[in-house]
Structure prediction request, 336 residues.
Amino acid sequence: MSRIKKNLVTLILKKFDIILSCKITNNNIKKRDKIMAIPDYQTIMLPLLSTLSDKKTYTNREIIELLSNRFKLSDNERKKLLPSGQQLIFDNRVAWARTYLKKAGLLETQKRGTQRITDRGLDVLKENRQKLDVKYLERFPEFLEFRKSPTKEKIKAQQNIIKANKTPEEILEDTFSLIKDNLAEELLEKIKKCSPEFFEKLVVDLIVSMGYGGSIKDAGQAIGKTSDGGIDGIVKEDRLGLDIIYIQAKRWANTVPIKEIRDFAGALLSKKAKKGIFITTSGFAKNAFDFVNSIEPKIILMDGNILSNLMIEYEVGANVYKHYKISKIDIDYFEQ
Prediction:
């Protein structure tokens, strides 16, 4: 092979190596970014401990902010809530990481709402470990005492928490969401098997339970009685009847085409109506949502999923059969 050819081959190989290296690097960055997004509570333990390595006292809020920056969380990731909408996911995971480290004697609280590293915590950092987890914390007798359980059920529950790598609240809310989703599906199947007359009654019960339509009698007389140009019913927006809402209710199995939405919008315009609700047991065409957002009458599209979840929320066709109450220590009571 001539020198020119050798040089050309060498140049091509170098460029290939650069391209391959860039591709691998980009893939690694994508993988790293994916892993870094809202870390689990065990992943938070070591960064939390090292954040407090300067022996200063930090408030819980300061710790959360420092760790948010350390993990490079986006604004959306910082604001992401648990399914209940009552607590931020990252805050919840930091709280549990903090609790476990305290129970192991690596952190201490001198003043309410603050944390400081202990000598034991500093000793752990000197080990230069890559990660802290529940298994590692089990070497400390205080942590074992904290997790000590007289029942097999509690041991199994704790093992499931560690295995899932989620906080107890996350597991509880995931389970609640699963139960709710299953119930919503069952409700929808039940509705589809009911008669059109019963579906009209169901719509009345739901709308009144949500605070619309005045009374059951008023709403019942309005819905299912008009059959006027694509409008199935009319209800009051409030008990005084200050505004009117027009209803279209379809107990369908197939997706509602946009033509039905256009016809409903036309009917609203002919009545000079400002508000309407289109309810169906199925779903809507994708362009239906763009359409209702572009027209003057305000139309709410309520598909089967929304319908069944509202029925659960307002207890229409679904009853609460069990309550779980979660309590926490009332710090103010002990500081009187």
Q: What stands out?
A: The first strand starts at residue 58 and ends at 59. The CA atoms of residues 255 and 283 lie 5 Å apart.
